Amino acid sequence: MLRPAEASRLSVIVLEHGAQWPDAVRRARERTENAVIVAQLAEESPRELVARVAARLNRAGEGQLEVAVLGTSGRSDPESLEARAAVGALLLGAMPRELGGELVLTASETCGAERRAQLFALAEKLVDAHGDASVFVRLELGATDFTTASRHAGLRSRLPRLGALSRGSTLV
């Protein structure tokens, strides 16, 4: 494996079947030299997607994962939610802490309040489990960008009051 100074910067884009092509992909590509795209096949289960993402990250081991985008579909069944969390954890776990990184969770701006709440909960869970001062998790709902920051100086998030999106609470 290459040492950090020698490795190329890498972005990884994972798209669930049915996800819209996120704007975040363009920005990720602008920041890195190389990109890996893993798109879920129509006949592929969420668990199979997790296994394929893990295998692909292992093969991409010589690059430094700087930006990851997880384009989510409208599925909210338990298997899909578990797989989404597992993919997020894999992507954050592959980012070198000494260099930092960013995970962008994306969904359509037309997704409903329940789905938005699920995505905010996932972002918070990923920050709690994997976030530190160098790794950020962001949520993009169409053109709207919310930053669920790392736990830098005790700050857990920089989210505006979201009303029904966060079930009436401020996510801080």
Break the fold down into its secondary structure elements and pairings.
Elements: E1 9-15, H1 24-31, E2 34-39, H2 46-59, E3 64-71, H3 78-93, E4 101-107, H4 113-130, E5 135-141, E6 144-148
Helix pairs in contact: 2-3, 3-4
How would you describe this structure in keywords?
single chain; 172 residues; alpha/beta; 6-stranded mixed β-sheet; 4 helices; 23% strand; globular; disordered N terminus; disordered C terminus
- What structural class is derived from the secondary structure elements? alpha/beta
Q: Write down how many β-strands occur, each being a DSSP E stretch of 2 or more residues.
A: 6
Q: How many alpha or pi helices?
A: 4
Strand content: 15-25%
Q: What is the helical fraction, as a range of percent?
A: 25-40%
Strand order of the largest sheet: 2-1-3-4-5-6
Order of helices and strands: EHEHEHEHEE
Give the termini distance in whole angstroms: 38 Å
Work out the oligomeric state of the chains in this entry. single chain
Which word captures the global form?
Answer: globular
Low-confidence stretches: 1-6, 148-172
- Which sheet architecture does the biggest sheet show? 6 strands, mixed
Q: What is the CA-based Rg, rounded?
A: 15 Å
The averaged pLDDT comes out at 76
